[in-house]
Amino acid sequence: MTKSRDLANLAGSATGLATDSELSAAVAAIDLTNVTRIVPTDSNISVPNAPTSVSGTVANAQSSVSFVASTNNGGSTILGYTVISSPGSIKKSGTTSPIVITGLTNGTAYTFTVKAHNIAGSSAASTASSSVTPVQVVTADYLVVAGGGAGGSIAGSDLTSAGGGAGGLRSTVTATGRGGSLESALTLNLSTNYTVTVGAGGAVTAWQNAGGSGSNSVFSTITSTGGGGGGRYDGGAGVNGGCGGGGAHVSGSGGTGTTSQGYAGGNGSSTNGFGSSGGGGGAGAAGTNGSDGSNNAGGAGGAGVATSITGSSVTYAGGGGGGTTGTTAGAGGSGGGGTSADRNTNAIAGTANLGGGGGGGSHYNNTPPAGRLQAAGGSGVVILRYLTTDGTITIGAGLTGTTATDGSYKVTTITAGTGNVSWA
Description:
This protein is mostly beta strands. The protein has helices at about 5-10, 20-30; strands at about 50-55, 60-70, 80-85, 90-95, 100, 110-120, 120, 135-145, 160, 170, 185-190, 195, 215-220, 220-225, 305, 315, 360-365, 380-385, 395, 400-405, 410-424. It has two domains: about 5-120, Sandwich (Immunoglobulin-like); about 135-424, no CATH class. The strands form five sheets. Strands 8, 10, 11, 12, 13, 14, 18, 19, 20 and 21 form a ten-stranded antiparallel beta sheet that branches. Strands 4-3-6-7 form a four-stranded antiparallel beta sheet.
């Protein structure tokens, strides 16, 4: 039985009795460009018209060729399409656009045409695509976490300050910030410098000020926004950021987060006297509000986001807890958020290289006179994952980082500084 007859048996008739899976298997197994007409020449069935709008992407020894399908199937189900390169006449068949054609030579310019096939034969070739030249590239996944914000300053009797917001988080692996869609890996060229900056955590500020906001972290075109500082005592609002800082007691509003990076901070409690402040926002959840009353609890920092870019699941970018005049401190969010001060204990800083927000402060009944202090935000981190076969990374001057192996990947973790990375 001939190849053409095999296809005819699968296709059945122009009414399409074959299943999609059968047709796909036939396309994969048979060179469609060898199919000749298998219906009588006086039949109403004709070859399809040619596909249109052909274009190819640049990649390593291959190209993903997209096209608009034939608008006229000639009266019979289209069995598939074939991409043909020039030069080389390399062919690859498939049933839908795009079709990835492999076996190309890096540094050689190619154009591509596409033919459509049905049981009457092959269409004319499409108009050729524009020229593309395959090159070796690096496909880099990333996790970019900015520095977390500090807790707000304190002063005055029976007042508290809010927790700092976590640094904004952007990721291509597992999950990204604020429930956004996973981002796409970057395609990078060899022997080209790409900027990296690891954002510092926000600093503790003098009284009467909101906590310092964290600094942005950057990889190439990707920027994550520093976490907002927590609101100062006596109703200070949280600062907007990658994740928003919490609002302070009394009635301070939480700062807003950044879309696809992090959530808002919680609000401060509303009653004068005993009360507590809101927790800073996290990359995975908003900070919670502070509560009123003699047994008040500080607002918890928002939870962070877990990602497995290093090969193990690690949680990043938790918000700092809000301060309390009671004994129940605001818990730091998972992912490095610092716990707040209470009447007995100073706040805890956000964790370095997790981008956690710092805990808010407490000043209860002027005892001790200086109150319990707020804390700084944690620094951010930039993590890059790429295939070992893509090349070897160079970490440039001004950056602190290490590279490890995870199966077929290399994972580079940069923990401080500003500078460039490149691959060779």
